[in-house]
Amino acid sequence: RKRAVVFISGGGSNMMALVAAAKAADYPAEIVGVIADKADAGGLAKAAAEGIPSFAFVRKDYASKEAHEEAIFAALDRLSPDILCLAGYMRLLSGVFIQRYEGRMINIHPSLLPLFPGLHTHQRAIDAGMRIAGCTVHFVTEGMDEGPVIGQAAVPILSGDSAESLAARVLTVEHQLYPQALRLLAESKVKMEGGKAVSTDAAAAPAER
Ligand code: GAR
User: Fold this and answer.
1) Residues 159-205: pLDDT tens digits?
2) Which of 43, 78, 151, 176 has the greatest count of CB atoms below 10 A from its CB?
3) pLDDT digit string (tens) for 111-132?
């Protein structure tokens, strides 16, 4: 099984969806660690209760972004992950960090990228008059929320939706999509190549024409 470390900043419901999926004997990845950038991230206690080594690295405890990331690298060297999963990790990683894990680091974003990267995605989708919303799992590259897309899931936007009600609906499909996307990467059925997500799964590839 591939070793995955999950990065969180908050409640960690996506992290817990990955943990739950990894309990299945045939799941190709195990969650070997959780790293947060907030000491009070709710997900830390949930991970610890599952017996998963979990660590907080608080940015203000370090003199620089480089020093903060060096501390995270040291923890990662001990966990020796094959794959990093960003799951509501609300901090931009440096180019050095991203290059170190290029092709092995994925993120979930609560919009149908390339629409609505960045913050306040749900309100922006509502304000734009969209009738659907959704989530995206993508390889992490240096452009924020720009990396090649591995998978997406869509939900309707209903009249009367608030950012909160839409976020809750999107979150339910995030919890389904993220374990599916991690499975594809852990089984080497998708890889990043030439700046694109390439399916190496003959069954999933579009028919030749
Ligand atoms: C999720 O909706 C995730 O897609 C989003 O934060 C939430 C984290 O919830 N991520 C981003 O907005 C990244 N830009 P969780 O901690 O319960 O998984």
Assistant:
1) 999 999 999 999 999 999 999 999 999 999 999 998 899 998 765 55
2) 43
3) 999 999 999 999 999 999 999 9
Active site residues per annotation = 109
Query: If you take atom 10 of ligand 1, which residue's CA is the nearest one?
Result: 88
| 23 labelled binding-site residue | no
| Residue 90 marked as a ligand binder | yes
Say how far apart CA 139 and CA 105 lie, in whole Å. 6
Indicate yes or no: pTM above 0.90. Answer: yes
CA dihedral 193, 196, 197, 198 (to 10 degrees): -60
Stated length of the chain: 209
Pair of tokens at residue 106: 């994925």
Contact 118, 158 (CB under 8 A): no
Half-sphere exposure of 47 (CA within 13 A, CB side): 29
Whether 15 has a binding-site annotation, put simply, is no
ipTM: 0.98
- Measured from the Cα of 171, ligand 1's closest atom is 2
Q: How far is the CA of 202 from the centre of ligand 1 (A)?
A: 31
